[in-house]
Design goal:
The chain is α/β, with parallel strands linked by helices and 243 residues long. Helix content is 41%, strand content 19%.
């Protein structure tokens, strides 16, 4: 199985296809398995497609420390390991939070970003809910494997921390092209987060799927794929479609 030894952590990844790089970043406490099984074959027809497990999750190793800048740093080092200078990067839910950190830290590595069912800030109720999710994981109530608890807790607390430390004020300086997609029936991140991102990012295109819930890349798969391919062509990542 492919792993990138980054010194302080070993990151599991899978890749397929050829062409411009496309990177998928999974949701909170999760891993890349579902994307690999259900979506990798499609995207690899257009891109060199990479999916990876965050430190302490999936088939990546545990680590001594967990925080959002470290997750983003892992992605930068994984791209270095793969010889990728710049990529179109998709983040769903927590993965979208990670991508926001990554584009702030490494804008030159982003040909474009796709922010799916995520937000740059949370309100009081959401903050408390995300923190409580981490506490349930820590207490064992969630049934999460012991080796995945610390990373899940760190990610839950990072999202909760967007109440006091939102990305919103910083994103106005990000000129990287962004496609922001959300679900009108999203009870996890809320469509409002996507609306905020679309307003604050200077080079964003935004679409809300009014009947969709959380994770439009799988709930509105056909439309999502069409929009991302159109976006990739618009920003010059892919060539123009052949009639």
């Amino acid at each position: 199985m492919p792993h990138a030894d980054l010194g302080d952590v070993s990151i599991y990844y899978e890749e397929a296809g050829a062409g411009p790089p496309f990177v998928h970043c999974h949701g909170l406490g999760g891993n890349c398995r579902r994307f690999v099984e259900e979506d990798m074959a499609f995207w690899s027809g257009y891109f060199r497609t990479v999916a990876w497990d965050n430190r302490g999750l999936g088939r990546s190793s545990t680590a001594a420390k967990y925080n959002t800048p470290l997750y983003a740093h892992d992605l930068a080092r994984l791209l270095d390991h793969l010889g990728i200078q710049q990529a179109l990067i998709h983040g769903v839910s927590w993965g979208g939070v990670l991508v926001q950190q990554f584009v702030l830290d490494h804008p030159e590595r982003c040909a474009g970003i796709v922010l799916d069912s995520t937000s740059s800030e949370v309100n009081v109720a959401a903050s408390e809910g995300w923190y409580a999710r981490g506490e349930r994981a820590k207490s064992g109530e969630s049934g999460i494997p012991a080796e995945h608890v610390n990373s899940t807790v760190a990610q839950s607390r990072a999202v909760a921390g967007l109440r006091e430390h939102p990305y919103t004020p910083r994103l106005g300086a990000v000129t990287v092209p962004a496609l922001v997609l959300g679900g009108g029936q999203d009870g996890t991140a809320g469509a409002g987060g996507s609306v905020i991102l679309g307003r604050v990012l200077p080079n964003a295109r935004t679409h809300i799927f009014q009947d969709a819930g959380h994770g439009v890349y799988r709930l509105e798969r056909e439309s999502f794929r069409e929009m991302v391919l159109s976006f990739a062509r618009e920003i010059g990542v892919l060539g123009a479609a052949v009639a």
